[in-house]
Design a protein that fits this description.
There is one protein chain. The chain is α/β, with parallel strands linked by helices. Helices cover about 25% and strands about 20% of the residues. It has six helices and nine strands; from the N terminus they run E-E-E-H-E-H-E-H-E-H-E-E-H-H-E. The chain has a seven-stranded mixed beta sheet with strand order 5-4-1-6-8-7-9, with helices on both faces. A two-stranded antiparallel ribbon has the order 2-3. Helix 1 packs across helix 4 and helix 3 runs antiparallel to helix 5. The N terminus is likely disordered.
């Protein structure tokens, strides 16, 4: 019988929020302001409101300042001392932090995509069927975030997550197994990467 999230599968959330904002002149993305609050709060809130529990936030650049400025009560904060090595190190840290939590899947979101909210999170979560599930939001037929990784896949993802590629190599190699969930009607995929992109923040 197929499993659904309604059957109480535990899907944890991971926010990758460790980046130093190199192309933004060294402004950590977690601390960029959107609607009056740091971006990291928006990303974490979207995962929680979308149904993820627990929600782990991977911090790196200016981690102490993020802890001091952002309201992150009720979230698990994970320090990534290797954040300068790229997104892969943060993904590894996030997945490792879920050991022993009982989570059957992890739904991963990026801190610099404020146009992706709780609706998209919930929609991708609904694609969960088993600890081998691999699912991702799709926009115009193209794979995007958030991405859901069943727990049976974590070890292989961790082994392949290097540099700034994150899970890209793994997802390419397992493309036929990915359930694509169209979210183009409820979310925007804009990344905040450059000074020009700051105009996307409200």
């Amino acid at each position: 019988m197929e499993r659904t999230t309604e059957d109480s599968a535990q899907v944890a959330g991971i926010v990758l929020a460790a980046g130093g904002g190199r192309r933004l002149g060294g402004r950590p993305k977690a601390l960029l302001t959107h609607r009056g609050r740091p971006l990291v709060e928006h990303a974490a809130h979207a995962l929680r409101e979308g149904g993820c529990a627990p929600v782990h936030i991977v911090l790196g650049a200016a981690a102490g300042t993020v802890r001091a400025r952002a309201r992150l009560d009720g979230y698990v904060l994970v320090d990534n001392p290797d954040w300068e090595q790229g997104m892969g190190s943060s993904l590894r840290a996030g997945l490792a932090s879920l050991a022993g939590t009982g989570a059957e899947a992890a739904l991963v979101a990026l801190v610099d995509q404020p146009g992706i909210g709780a609706e998209a999170v919930a929609r991708v979560m609904a694609a969960y069927r088993s600890p081998s599930t691999l699912a991702a939001a799709a926009y115009g037929g193209e794979r995007g975030h958030p991405v859901l990784f069943g727990a049976d896949r974590w070890a292989d993802i961790t082994a392949s997550a290097v540099g700034d590629r994150g899970a890209r190599a793994y997802l390419r190699a397992h493309q036929s197994a990915i359930t694509l969930v169209d979210c183009s009607d409820i979310a925007r995929t804009d990344d905040i990467d450059t000074p020009e992109d700051l105009t996307l923040l409200e």
